[in-house]
Design goal:
Layout (H helix, E strand, L loop, with lengths): L1 H6 L3 E3 L5 E11 L4 E9 L2 H4 L6 E5 L3 E4 L3 E3 L2 H19 L1
Parallel strand pairs: 1-6
Antiparallel strand pairs: 1-2, 2-3, 3-4, 5-6
Length: about 90
């Protein structure tokens, strides 16, 4: 698949520009015909020496932007903005 070829090997960065690893595979839902998540091998010296086989499964809705690199969303900012909206809704009900 073309999308898999384009994603595999891309570096994944957290929103703080910290390297999370590289995409090694993609979870694809054939019924819905869409990518569900990306599988990322953790980077660093362990990957270079092939010591660690640990992987991260990152749902696609956690991805902020895909370009030369994949940048993840800031989970905390979204959680706080949603919490602020809920607080405002509760205030309006009082």
């Amino acid at each position: 698949m073309r999308i898999v070829k384009e994603l595999v090997g891309k570096e994944v960065l957290g929103n703080d520009v910290m390297i999370m690893g590289k995409v090694v595979d993609v979870d694809f839902d054939f019924d819905e015909e869409k990518v569900e998540s990306i599988i990322v091998s953790k980077g660093g010296i362990q990957e270079t020496l092939n010591i660690s086989k640990s992987e991260l499964v990152i749902p696609l809705d956690m991805v902020h932007k895909i370009g030369d690199k994949i940048i993840l969303k800031d989970v905390f900012d979204e959680d706080f903005s949603q919490l602020e909206e809920e607080i405002e809704d509760l205030k309006s009900q009082l």
